[in-house]
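Annex B. Sample input.
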Amino acid sequence: MRAAQAAPGPAVPRRAVLGGLVASAALGGCTRADPPPAVSPGPDVAVLTAAIAAEQRLIMLHEAVLRAHAGLAGRLEPMLAHHREHLRVLQRHYVPGTGEGASAAPVPSPTPFQAPAGRSGALAALRRAESEAAAARAADVVKIAPGMAQLLASIGACEAGHAALLEAALEEEE
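Annex B, continued. Sample output.
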């Protein structure tokens, strides 16, 4: 009996077979077996969105007081301009849904504010809001990256200055 012969055609060298196996293994390592982890908001994003919401509240509060007490415009309009600039700068740093730790959630909208009827009450409400915002920014600086911490520290210092000016205005009202 005769031994079975291989089919006619070119023989594949052993090196080519081994090279193909190595290439297959290498290419197989290029794909991910696990899906990428879900991105959750990092501390910078949470602090930034809170600061944006706080500036929006301060703007609404100042606007409400100005509507109710137009005579305070000379004192309050410069402060309102500061808050609008703070908001613009903060919003430049917030891009929803991009980058590591980004959040797709929008910045919450502030609730409308009704200004107190009396000038002293309105000034006191503004002073309290400015003081609370300054304290919040001071607390924020330890939670975030240094560059953003510097920005929030300067905004907090401005708000503390506003609180002091409003305290002086309250003393003049009495």
